[in-house]
Amino acid sequence: MSESIIQIRHLTKTFGDGDGAVHALEDINLDIRQGEIFGIIGLSGAGKSTLVRCINLLERPTSGSVVVDGREMTGLSEKELRLARRDVTMIFQSFNLLMQRTCLKNVCFPMELCGVPAAQAKKRAQELLEIVGLGDKANAYPSQLSGGQKQRVAIARALATDPKVLLCDEATSALDPTTTASILALLKDLNQKLGVTVVVITHQMSVIEEICSRVAILDGGVVAEQGAVEEIFSNPKTDAARRLVYPGGVSAAQYPASTRAVRVAFNGGTAYQPLIASLAIDCGVKVNILGADTRNIDGKAFGTMLLGLPEDPNEAAKALSYIRSQPNVTAEEVEYHG
Q1: Helix (H) or strand (E) holding 225
Q2: Beta-carbon neighbour count of residue 195 at 10 Å?
Q3: What are the backbone angles phi and psi of residue 48, rounded to the nearest 5°?
């Protein structure tokens, strides 16, 4: 297991004071490992953007500590912070490019601030544009680019100081699905080739499942759940996680209280078994699919299906027993309230 490059301990952030105080983050504890792609997800207002801004001290925590690559960020002077931020760069939803500068000069900008000689900065900027697939756009201006191309320039600029950590704050939420997929593929590629640790802040579970190995779920300023993406997808333990993993809501609430049902979780089998057909053929039991939210991650099946059981208790027991005997499947009877 690789060591942590970011360690967040008991981090709290409060805006304002007295009765009007807003507790944006409360007692956050996270470890982000060297070289991984780590996701931080939550609904709007969960505290994600505040947390990412606390990592590079754009937002100063009210209490707690943030250690990046062995340095306690909260103890650094302004000058030391400026140097430290070269190792922790950021890309944003709105790209934040300088509109009056060409793509090449946008990528040169952080190097100019660091005092890199102009010729060297220009050479490196051109290399970075090639890496992100925009070598031919060096002399174009941001206004001439698509959203995806602007984000690629922003990524090239963020890499200009050879950072150890790349923070992505909702970096794909302004892009269409196809462009989003290409930007995520680029981030994955850069992570593998350059070894840069990537922290992805998003409200989209599809982004997490596409590229992250581990994830923390923020809910109301606290970490509701964290762990391997596979683990949380197959078995979300908190309401906050279930809301994100199954936004369509594989929920029993809309069915009559008398309906007996079972929630079946697929925990990473190599493929979905035709479970319903097998039940009918092997057991002679028919069940109704009340809801389903299943997906394929790395060729393995994950997700949940809600099945209505037969009214006959013997038939229901037979169905439950059969489902539970299947590999990589767990089943629990769902309780109804009302």
Answers
A1: strand 222-228
A2: 10
A3: -60, -50
Q: Which two tokens mark 65?
A: 């500590």
Distance CA 299, CA 297 (A): 5
pLDDT tens sequence across 14-66: 998 888 888 899 999 999 999 999 999 988 778 888 999 999 999 999 999 99
Task: Please tell me the distance from the alpha carbon of residue 184 to that of residue 188, in angstroms, as a whole number.
Answer: 6
* Confidence at 76, pLDDT banded by 50, 70, 90: very high
The Cβ-side half-sphere exposure at 258, using a 13 Å CA radius, reads 3
Consecutive H or E run containing 11: strand 4-15
Residues 245 and 232: beta-carbon distance below 8 Å: yes
Residues 6+ apart with CB under 8 A from 265: 234, 235, 303, 304, 329, 330, 331
What's the rounded Cα separation, in Å, for the pair 202 and 40?
A: 6
Which ranges constitute the DSSP H helices of the chain? Answer: 48-55, 78-84, 103-113, 118-131, 147-158, 177-194, 205-211, 229-234, 239-245, 275-278, 313-324
> Whole-model pTM?
0.75
Residue 59 has phi, psi (to 5 degrees) of -120, 125
Higher pLDDT, 291 or 187: 187
Give the β-pairing of 71-72 and 63-68. antiparallel
Ordered strands of the 329-334 beta sheet: 288-297, 300-308, 261-269, 329-334
- Rg of the chain, C-alpha, whole Å: 24
User: Residue 309 carries which DSSP code?
Assistant: P
